[in-house]
Amino acid sequence: MDFDNIQKVASLMQEMRLTYFEYQGADYKFTIKREESQKPAAASAAHPGLAPPMDVVAKNYASVPSPAIGTIYLKDSDGIPFVSEGSIVLEGDVLCRIEAMKMFSDIKSPYSGKIINVLVGDSELVEFDMPLFSIERTDD
């Protein structure tokens, strides 16, 4: 892949607000990682029809936002849900998978706790920073 194509990928990542991209060709592999320079606006401001992110709704409750724009899959390839309401999860457990630009990324729980709500449906389009799950945290 030439430098111009890498620049195009980096520009597309910025436009789509992606922070990680990995590509492997026949004889090479490259990874682009970037940090967000500013915290994005709340989902409700960017998308008036959406509920605001629940960073802290009540003591020990938190939301898990989407890290990218893409299609969310709540079930694995065998049709088994990764989690459902009432599931107990540990920090690092896979909650779902997001497909963006034909690449799949596992979304892992940033907290240990109990899934209170699944806020999206399987195979729906999700936006960056859109709340996906609410979790009652047990990792204080």
Account of the protein in words:
The chain is mainly beta and 140 residues long. The protein has two domains: 3-33, no CATH class; 45-137, OB fold (Dihydrolipoamide Acetyltransferase, E2P) (Beta Barrel). 13% of the residues lie in helices and 35% in strands. The chain is built from two helices and ten strands. A hairpin with a 4-residue loop joins β1 and β2. The radius of gyration is 16 Å and the shape is elongated. The relative contact order is 0.20. Mean pLDDT is 79; it is low at 38-58.
Give me the secondary-structure topology.
Layout: H1 3-16, E1 20-24, E2 29-33, H2 43-46, E3 61-65, E4 70-73, E5 88-89, E6 94-100, E7 103-108, E8 113-118, E9 125-126, E10 131-137
Antiparallel strand pairs: 1-2, 3-10, 4-6, 4-9, 5-8, 6-7, 8-10
